[in-house]
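Fold it.
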Amino acid sequence: MPERNVTSWGVMLLSVILAVMFWFFVTWERPVLRTISVPVRCLHYAGGMTCSGAPPFVQAVISGPRLTVALLRPKEMFLDLDLSGVGEGVTVFPALEPLMGLSQELRATRIFPARIEVRLSRSK
């Protein structure tokens, strides 16, 4: 009879461990939102030009699995405005999400401002 009791405890313990592991898996995979401030950088514009009008930061609401969002490092994120081949004048960047370089699991659900206008002018 004592053997049967030990076996029952073993099965119950295994059941509890599996239930807790399943709960963690389900909880950590639920999508969550996180608001971060992302610095804006003007890159690859011609020498002798000045870039102005870009805000120093944009506010982005990032959505994705809880664990992936928790491991996100905002200090390593940038919104890079590629100005290669752009001449003097105003350039508009209407779609900012692709410029953030997020992984496939993450999505920027809201970015403020939604578009950026940058002016390139000759340096004096």
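The CA atoms of residues 31 and 65 lie 4 Å apart.
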